[in-house]
Amino acid sequence: MPHAPDYLTTAEVAAYLRLKERKVYDLVRQGEMPCVRITGKLLFPRQAIDLWLMNHLEGDERGSVPVPPVLAGSHDPLLDWAARESGAALAFLCRGSIDGARRLLEGRAMLAAMHVLAPETGEYNQPHLLGLGGLRDLVVIHWATRRQGLLLAPGNPLGIHGLADVARPGLRVAHRQPDAGADTLFRWLLREAGVDQDALAFLPHPALTEDDLALEVREGHADVGLAVEASARRHGLDFIPLHQEQFQLAMRRRHYFEPPVQRLLAFARGPRLQQRAEKMGGYDLSRLGAVAYNA
């Protein structure tokens, strides 16, 4: 069986949706139908068209209270930058992946940024483990594969070389809040390394973002902590890579087509995001935009 094309022409999408080509052009002109324009020619991403079609089959859910343009969940330096540069007008509320999933479920956020590892399977952001299994219109798309590791003072003056060293007496350990995916990952990595977490000298208060944790180390309040490579580079810290993780965006299917989300994703397809990711370090964007889960 031949592989279905990833992009449809105007004639192909009209036939696929059983519409006249003139109606397709009208929908594009009104900003209602997702498409891209390449050298003056309209092309329609098949995945986006399928989502758009499903969105229009769910009219029974449109009478609800409007969802605010909030991007909740986990913090990511590249996503933070892209949301601002794209003009998406999304308000950030970074209180951890689990909090983001909760806000998405309750209709208090349009997007939830997540990177929650299921230790038993090694998979990320499984809806049933996040309380999102009941959403029949849930969509999860890839943002980036990120490199997580230990952040250390410049020059690594304490000679920390891996997780086993984190248990050294007297070391102060920065950490994220319990709802953060980074906290789940850190504690799993410690268990895998056979490190007794009760013996660690955690700071009394959690860091609420990747950059907050980096600042704890940079300013000398902590000796070590787990965060992404981009935060280490931004703050001039040493970095020991430990794990590659999947950072993804969850949303209700109909919100995929809201202007804030479309502006963010359109910007993400451009060259500036790749250039910024390379400058920040620790990002692989090869799967950006791919659908990881579609209820």
Short summary of the structure?
With 295 residues, the chain is α+β, with helices and mostly antiparallel strands. It is built from eleven helices and 15 strands.
Helix count, per DSSP? 11
Order of helices and strands: EHHEEHEHEHEEEEHEHEHEHEHHEE
In angstroms, what separates the terminal alpha carbons? 25 Å
Computed CA radius of gyration, to the nearest angstrom = 21 Å
Which range best describes the helical content: under 10%, 10-25%, 25-40%, 40-55%, 55-70% or over 70%? Answer: 25-40%
DSSP strand content? 15-25%
Global morphology: elongated
Describe this structure in words.
By secondary structure, the chain is of the alpha+beta class. 33% of the residues lie in helices and 24% in strands. A hairpin with a 4-residue loop joins strand 7 and strand 8 (123-124). The two termini are 25 Å apart. The chain has 11 helices and 15 strands. Strands 4, 5, 6, 9, 12, 13, 14 and 15 form an 8-stranded mixed beta sheet that branches.
Topology overview:
Layout: E1 7-8, H1 10-17, H2 21-29, E2 36-38, E3 41-45, H3 46-56, E4 70-73, H4 77-85, E5 91-94, H5 97-105, E6 111-114, E7 117-118, E8 123-124, E9 138-152, H6 163-166, E10 172-173, H7 181-192, E11 201-202, H8 210-218, E12 224-228, H9 229-234, E13 238-252, H10 259-268, H11 271-280, E14 283-284, E15 291-294
Helix pairs in contact: 1-2
Key phrases:
alpha+beta; 295 residues; three-stranded antiparallel β-sheet; 11 helices; 24% strand; elongated; 33% helix; eight-stranded mixed β-sheet; single chain; 15 strands
